[in-house]
Amino acid sequence: MSTPEIKKEILRLKNQNDVLILAHSYQTRDICEIADFTGDSYALAKHAAAAKNKTVLMCGVRFMAETVKILAPEKRVLLSHADAGCPMAEQLTREDLAELKAKYPNAVTVAYINTTANLKTLCDVCVTSSSAERILTAIAEKEILFIPDINLGQYLASKMPDKTFRFVKGGCPIHMTALKTDVIQAKLAHPNALFLAHPECLPEVALQADFVGSTTGIMDYAKNSEKQEFIIGTETAIVEHLQFECPDKKFYPLSEKFICRDMKLTTIQNVLACCRGEGEEINLKEETRLSAKKCIDKMIELGG
Ligand code: 13P
Ligand code: SF4
What residues line ligand 1, using a CB cutoff of 6 Å? Predict the structure, then answer.
């Protein structure tokens, strides 16, 4: 089948089998084009909570599909590619976290949403890059054990000096590859461009940015800005989407190394297979689901 034929068949099957297709913004254009909704982790979680369909297909990585299952247990939840995980989500085990909690008994445990469901069972509140500042400002506790992304954590700590942050050395292996020298080179090559960065970047990179935000935050900023050129400090899919949506503006990747292999595993053929009822179904033990749900509910309550 040609790509247009595959897309047509996906749309037919999606309606016939009542499948909602959610896609993270790092997915390729062809997948975003057939998705019902594309967005950042926070928007995807909120969409999942409100979904009415029998089946939800998450085109993204495993923790995102787990979040859907946690919020919508009665639905059949499919992950677009069985091997699509987020390496950062698996950097800590439950045992590691239990040790950290014992070390900082007075700290509130805040998990970046890029964590496994299993790890979330030990956390008090979840955050995403777009909701973290709002949520951490809203919580009364002054001591925060922030897992697993030290870069997002340090960015947040710089915004709220009244709180004490405890970190682990986790982070996104993709975003952490860019260094300050990459920013200097990109700015020299594109002197009129604004630099927009994801908070998963190293502080030496994020500190050079004109704007720091989530994938959707970066896209909205660039679309609404009067400026014409932008250096994009996140996965290259965002460069691709922005160039498509704003053909009169210019977008440059901060680094050619910003390619998330896991996010790129999903193809349009995988989406077709899932709409046919194949694909990896997410199942969680009810005990794990209920326990992990508490910190996600808290995120939605405080995140607005
Ligand atoms: P967003 O919440 O900004 O979409 O980030 C998710 C992610 O995995 C970024 O690497
Ligand atoms: Fe995980 Fe990094 Fe890929 Fe985002 S870009 S899904 S944090 S590995």
Answer: 25, 40-42, 114, 128-130, 172, 198, 200, 214-215
